[in-house]
Structures are given as C-alpha cells and as structure tokens.
Amino acid sequence: MKRLGRASWLTIAGLAGLVVIVVLFFMSGESSQAAASRFMNALGKGDVNTLASMSDIPGKSEDEIRRAWEHTTKVAGPHYIFTYKISSNLDANDNTSMVRMMVIRNAERDGAYEEKFELPLVKKDGKWKVEVLGLDRRLYPGLPRE
After folding, report:
1. pTM
2. Could you list the residue range(s) of the whole structural domain that residue 72 is in?
3. Least enclosed by CB within 10 Å: which of 25, 68, 105, 141?
C-alpha cells in the first residue's frame, strides 16, 4: 500500500524527462518559419530595427542595412499594404532554408490576389536571417539592394 505524499521513481523519471524535452525545445531556437513570420510582421509594421537585425546583406553593416530599411519603409512604401500566409518551408540543411508563402500585394485594392513568394533564410550565429538580395523585387517597393 502506498503512502500519501511519496512520489514514485516512475513519477520522478517522468518529470525529469519532461524537463529535458522542454530544455531541448528552447535550446533548439526559432524555426525558419517562425523567423520568416517575424520578418514579414516587421515589414508590415515598418519595424526597421527588427528588419535590420534579421537581414543578411553581404558587405553591409547593420547601420547601413537599417538606413536602407528606413528608406524602404518610410519613403518607397509607407502606405503599401500586404497580407501573407506561410505555406511551407524547405530546409536544405541546418543553416539554410527557403520559406514559401502566399502574399496579397496591394491588399486594399479591388482585384488583389494571392501570389507565391519565397523568403531565403540563412542561419548566422544561431539566428535566422533573411537573405535580402534573394528576395523577389515585387514583394515590397524599394527593397534594399547592394
């Protein structure tokens, strides 16, 4: 007969296993799809700091990237409205991914329709970044370029 208040070894092992799973989940970091969604939300809100920190443009400093995103969001497309839906992703390996999404550009206009776009991502220093030069120029007006 068991006494109340005593935990069995099975219960303790189960709890320890659960703790290990939770720790591994948080150590694995953000998925490429979650990063893509965070990037697209920042683009929709004009969040220049998030866009700059999540952008990979070879040969450009984060300050240069931030200034480019300021121009994109405040000069080229301050009133541009779009909606998006992540449809899938293809992880080529642990450090590269292609996130596919459906985007409605100029969403406020009659006749706007869904179009397929891809967001190329690369993992640098354990964080997903969007390869901005690989973005289709039709995705958003005045995307940063070299």
Report:
1. 0.80
2. 32-139
3. 25
